[in-house]
C-alpha cells in the first residue's frame, strides 16, 4: 500500500493549501498551466429549477465544475463539487453534470481517446431540497462510474473541510483510487444523523476527536479504505494524482473484494462497541490489491 | 429570498465577461457580461430579506466608479456590504483586463 | 420447540409471494432472503432484505441495510454473474422494503460505505453483463438503503400504496436536518415534486416502469400475486430488449417534463465537450 506523504522543510515553506481553495480554484490548480477549459460554466446558467421556488438562492453552475485540461501532459477531466454551496449536496443539475461527463468520458475511452478522470468530492450527499432527484442523480452517477471504470482509471480526492458523506461516499468507494488528507472525512452517515437515529451513546456528534478518529483520512488510510494519505498541499496532491494514474486501471477494485471483506468482518467480535484503535489493529495489514 | 433589479447609466460595453465568488454562507457570486444598450443592469437575488436600501447604497457607490455597460447578476447568501463591494471590485477588475 | 416468529414485513411477504412454494432457498444470513425460482419459463434469483432481531450488529436489527446485508447482497448477485457466465443470463429481482441504511459507529468504522458500494457494483455489473435487473418497491426505499438495494435496476416497479415511500431521508431526520417542522416539509412537498413522500409524486419523475394499482400490499390475493409476477416478467422482457444502462429513466413524457433540466445538461455538455 502506497503512503505518499511528506515534507521537507523547503517544501513546507512553499506549501499551498488546497483546502483553502474553492472548487473552481482547486480544478485550476490541478490542471497543467494554460490547459483549463470549463464546460457548462456559470454563464451557461444551468441552475437548479427547484431551489428558487423554495426561496433558496441558486448558484449559476449549481455547485459542480466540469473542467477539461491536462494533468501531467495527459488529457483529463476534473469534476469538482463546490462544498461551500449547500454543503456540496447533489441536486438534479449538479448530479446530471457529473453523470453526463462520466458518460462522455466513457465514450471517449471506448473510441480510443483515453482520458483521466478526477473527482473532487466535498459533499454531504443528497440535496434535501431536491430529495428524490438528488437520490436519482447519485444512483445514475454510480452506474456511470462502474461502467466507465473498466475503461479508464478514476481518481477521487477528498480534501476537506466538508468531507464526503451520504450517497456520495458510495461514489467515492467506487472510484479506482481514493486520496484523502488528514483533515478530510469519509462516512456514509454524518455524526448528527447517527446521534439522532441511534442515540448519543452510539455516536456523540459533539466529540470532534471521535468524529475524526472514526471518519478522518488518517483512520481511513490506516484501515485500508483510502489508497493515499496526502498533505494539504496543491503540489503534493497533484503528484499523488499523477502517481495513481500511473498505476492504470486496477485489475480488481476494492468494491469487488467481496470474499475478503466477508471473511474479515466475520472474524470481528461486534458484540461490544468498537474503538478506532481496535479496527486499526485488526485491519492495518489488509491486502487491498 | 428577495429579487430586484437596478439600472445605471454607462458608457462603453465591458471588455469581457467575468465571474467571482461562491454562493456560500456570508458570501456571494457575481457574474458580469457585456451589455449592449449603454446601460448597466444589475439583478440581485439575496437570501436575506429587508435590505433593499443597503443594496441600493452599495451599488450606487460601486457604479459611481464603474462606468462599463454590463449585465451584472448577483447571487447572495448573506454577505456583508464590505464583502459585496469586494466581490464586485474583483469581478470588475477581471472584466476590464 | 417454538420457533421465534419472524416479523412479516412486506419484504418477506413479497419475497415469499413472488418466489412461490417451488423456489429453491439459497442459504445466507437471516436478514438477506435469496431464492432461485422459475417464473413461468424465466430463471430468476429473487433477493430481499428483512429484519433480523438477532443481528450481531445492534443498529441493523430492524431491516436496515447494514454491513452484513450489503456484502451478502454483493456476493449473491456476483454468484449469479459467475454461474451464468457461459449461459443465458437469468433475471435478478429485488424486493425492496428498506427503512434506510444502518446508522452506527461499528458501521462507519468498518466501512458501510464500501459495503454499499460493493452491492451497487454487483448490481451494475450484473446489468452490464446482460442480466435483467428488476426492482419491486413494496415498502420503504430510503436513502442509502435504496441506493444499495434496488436503485440500480433496469426497470423499477412500485405499488401505488401509502406504505410505499421512496425518499432521500426519513421524515423526522429530514425535519431535524433542514430545521423545519414535519408539517412544513409536507407543505413544501406539494410545491416541490421531488421532495414529496408520496409514491404518486415519485411516479411523476419518470423513473418507474410501472405503478401497480389495486393490490392489497400487506395481504395480497393469489390472483394479484399472479398479476404482479406477470408485470415483473414483462419488465424482464422489456429490459432484455433494451440497453443495459439507465437511459430508459429519461425517456418517458413524465421525465421530459420533470427532468427537463437533466436532459438539457446532457445535450449541452455533449455539444461543449466535442466543441
Integer tally of domains of chain B: 1
Q: Distance between the terminal alpha carbons of chain B, to the nearest Å?
A: 33 Å
CATH H-level superfamily of the largest domain in chain C: 2-enoyl-CoA Hydratase, Chain A, domain 1
Oligomer: heterotrimer
CATH fold-level label of the largest domain in chain C: 2-enoyl-CoA Hydratase, Chain A, domain 1
Q: Which structural class fits the helix and strand makeup of chain B?
A: alpha+beta
Radius of gyration of chain B: 12 Å
What is the share of helical residues of chain C?
A: 40-55%
Quick one: how many beta strands of chain B?
5
- Class derived from helix and strand content of chain C: alpha/beta
Pick out the low-confidence regions of chain C: none
List the chains of the largest interface with their residue counts. A-C, 80 and 74 residues
Q: Which architecture of chain B does the CATH hierarchy give at level 2?
A: 2-Layer Sandwich
**Which stretches of chain B are poorly predicted, pLDDT < 50 over at least 5 residues?**
none
The structural domain count of chain C equals: 2
How would you sum up the major sheet of chain B?
Answer: 5 strands, mixed
Continuous helix count of chain C: 11
Mean pLDDT across all residues of chain B, rounded? 94
Q: How would you spell out the order of helices and strands of chain C?
A: HEEEHEHHEHEEHHHEHHH
The percentage helix of chain B is: 25-40%
- Write the element-wise H/E pattern of chain B from the N-terminal end onward: EEEEHEH
Amino acid at each position: 500500500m502506497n503512503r505518499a506523504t511528506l515534507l521537507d522543510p523547503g517544501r513546507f515553506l512553499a506549501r499551498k493549501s488546497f483546502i483553502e481553495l474553492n472548487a473552481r480554484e482547486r480544478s485550476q490548480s490541478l490542471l497543467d498551466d494554460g490547459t483549463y477549459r470549463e464546460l457548462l460554466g456559470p454563464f451557461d446558467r444551468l441552475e437548479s429549477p427547484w431551489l428558487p421556488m423554495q426561496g433558496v438562492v441558486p448558484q449559476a453552475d449549481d455547485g459542480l465544475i466540469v473542467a477539461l485540461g491536462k494533468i501531467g501532459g495527459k488529457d483529463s477531466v476534473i469534476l469538482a463539487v463546490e462544498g461551500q454551496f449547500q454543503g456540496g449536496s447533489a441536486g438534479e443539475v449538479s448530479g446530471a453534470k457529473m453523470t453526463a461527463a462520466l458518460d462522455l468520458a466513457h465514450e471517449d475511452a471506448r473510441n480510443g481517446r483515453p482520458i483521466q478522470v478526477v473527482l473532487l468530492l466535498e459533499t454531504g450527499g443528497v440535496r434535501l431540497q431536491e430529495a428524490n432527484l438528488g437520490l436519482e442523480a447519485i444512483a445514475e452517477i454510480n452506474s456511470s462510474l462502474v461502467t466507465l471504470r473498466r475503461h479508464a482509471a478514476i481518481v477521487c480526492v477528498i480534501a476537506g473541510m466538508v468531507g464526503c458523506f451520504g450517497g456520495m461516499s458510495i461514489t467515492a468507494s467506487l472510484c479506482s483510487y481514493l486520496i484523502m488528507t488528514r483533515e478530510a472525512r469519509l462516512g456514509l452517515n454524518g455524526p448528527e444523523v447517527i446521534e439522532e437515529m441511534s442515540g448519543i451513546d452510539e455516536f456523540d456528534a459533539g466529540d470532534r476527536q471521535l468524529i475524526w478518529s472514526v471518519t478522518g483520512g488518517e483512520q481511513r488510510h490506516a484501515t485500508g479504505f483510502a489508497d493515499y494519505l496526502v498533505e494539504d498541499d496543491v503540489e503534493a496532491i497533484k503528484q499523488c494524482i499523477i502517481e495513481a494514474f500511473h498505476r492504470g486501471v486496477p485489475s480488481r477494485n476494492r468494491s469487488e473484494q467481496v470474499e475478503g471483506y466477508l471473511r474479515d468482518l466475520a472474524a470481528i467480535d461486534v458484540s461490544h462497541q468498537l474503538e478506532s484503535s481496535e479496527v486499526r489493529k485488526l485491519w492495518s495489514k489488509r491486502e487491498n490489491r | 429570498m428577495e429579487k430586484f433589479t437596478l439600472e445605471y447609466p454607462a458608457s462603453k460595453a465591458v471588455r469581457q465577461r467575468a465571474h467571482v465568488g461562491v454562493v456560500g454562507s456570508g458570501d456571494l457570486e457575481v457574474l458580469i457580461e457585456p451589455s449592449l444598450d449603454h446601460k448597466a443592469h444589475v439583478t440581485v437575488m439575496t437570501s436575506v430579506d429587508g435590505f433593499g436600501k443597503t443594496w441600493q447604497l452599495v451599488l450606487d457607490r460601486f457604479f459611481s466608479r464603474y462606468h462599463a455597460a454590463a449585465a451584472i447578476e448577483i447571487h447572495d447568501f448573506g454577505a456583508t456590504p464590505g464583502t459585496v463591494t469586494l466581490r464586485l471590485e474583483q469581478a470588475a477588475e477581471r472584466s476590464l483586463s | 420447540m417454538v420457533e421465534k416468529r419472524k416479523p412479516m414485513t412486506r419484504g418477506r411477504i413479497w419475497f415469499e409471494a413472488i418466489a412461490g412454494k417451488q423456489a429453491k432457498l439459497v442459504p445466507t444470513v437471516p436478514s438477506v432472503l435469496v431464492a432461485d425460482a422459475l417464473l413461468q419459463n424465466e430463471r430468476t434469483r429473487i433477493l430481499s432484505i428483512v429484519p433480523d432481531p438477532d443481528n450481531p450488529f445492534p443498529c441493523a436489527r430492524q431491516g436496515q441495510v447494514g454491513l452484513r446485508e450489503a456484502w451478502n447482497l454483493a456476493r449473491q448477485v456476483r454468484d449469479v454473474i459467475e454461474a451464468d457466465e457461459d449461459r443465458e443470463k437469468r433475471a435478478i429481482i429485488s424486493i425492496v422494503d428498506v427503512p434506510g441504511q444502518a446508522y452506527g459507529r461499528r458501521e462507519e468504522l468498518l466501512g458501510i460505505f464500501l459495503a454499499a458500494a460493493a452491492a451497487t457494483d454487483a448490481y451494475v455489473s450484473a446489468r452490464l453483463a446482460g442480466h435483467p435487473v428488476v426492482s419491486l418497491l413494496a415498502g420503504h426505499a430510503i436513502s442509502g438503503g435504496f441506493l444499495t438495494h434496488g436503485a440500480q435496476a433496469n426497470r423499477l416497479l412500485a405499488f401505488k400504496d401509502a406504505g410505499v415511500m421512496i425518499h432521500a431521508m426519513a421524515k423526522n431526520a429530514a425535519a431535524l436536518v433542514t430545521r423545519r417542522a414535519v408539517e412544513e416539509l409536507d407543505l413544501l412537498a406539494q410545491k416541490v415534486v421531488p421532495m414529496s413522500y408520496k409514491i404518486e409524486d415519485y411516479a411523476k419523475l419518470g423513473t418507474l416502469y410501472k405503478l401497480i394499482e389495486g393490490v392489497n400490499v400487506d395481504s395480497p390475493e393469489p390472483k394479484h400475486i399472479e398479476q404482479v409476477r406477470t408485470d415483473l416478467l414483462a419488465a424482464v422482457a422489456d429490459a432484455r430488449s433494451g440497453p443495459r444502462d439507465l437511459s430508459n429513466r429519461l425517456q418517458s413524457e413524465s421525465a421530459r417534463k420533470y427532468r427537463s433540466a437533466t436532459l438539457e445538461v446532457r445535450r449541452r455538455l455533449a455539444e461543449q465537450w466535442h466543441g
